[in-house]
């Protein structure tokens, strides 16, 4: 896990240095995961070197639209796909315990903690912020998730600063990017010619960089990196967050809620792709061919009927109340709970909504009259 920020200056590594970094992390017994192209999208899977990265691919994103196309030679030209790192740290399904034996000999066997060592390669600044949100929710306070904490403990993070933004990105408005400022061991900024400006963010990251073939970054290379990050920021859409939590809580009857309900399918895609949503439900599953039973924790969504089912009925019965609950929590009451908004501006909910509902447009509309 990332420690105190290191003081060494930035260095530049090439594709060979990148491969050496991956090899060194693997030699530590880590499962190395990074972006790969699969099934028409950028997803996170095991990688063994720069040859596995989606070099020369970029993403085209808008409301309800995601496509990959060829452009340039960048290793990290494509921004965000449907998956977040949450799928690894807080998986969609987690067994908590299982039974073994029958009758008086029945025992309950707790699911072992996953203490595997992992390295994440190519974590964007918005996803770093999302991991920090999940850290706060799942490892702090009275109710900690030991399975999440175990996976998080043995993690090495290599971040990638964005030099290109998708049309759905708005991390600058949320103060979470496009440059990583904390939460990483090493941060890379891709330069021309297959090189990377690398900076350490922890003692472990500094030690790992020191062992790689590299050269100190020149002033020109530092300026190139900063210009790329500034370009990514300039490409983004905006959301006005000034007073937004109070506005959302004060306008539960705004007509916009009814308008968005006419489009919302209650499919829960937005919560499934959101890197900060943390809600879960618990099932007990009995085997059909024997007495074994297991208790499983799985992702839940406030867009489903069962989520607010109390005393024989659902509290939030329609799309209007469900979308209002999700957005008001994400951008409003989350601040009351955790001291910050639950949105990091990644824009996944916009791209992966089948009808293209746009949280930034909804926030702007709710500022209008009629509340």
Automatic annotation (TrEMBL):
InterPro entries: 4Fe4S_Fe-S-bd, 4Fe4S_Fe_S_CS, Helical_ferredxn. Residues 253-284, 331-362 form the 4Fe-4S ferredoxin-type domain. The keyword Iron applies. Keywords: Iron, Iron-sulfur, Metal-binding. The keyword Metal-binding applies. Gene3D superfamilies: Alpha-helical ferredoxin. This is 4Fe-4S ferredoxin. It comes from Sinisalibacter aestuarii.
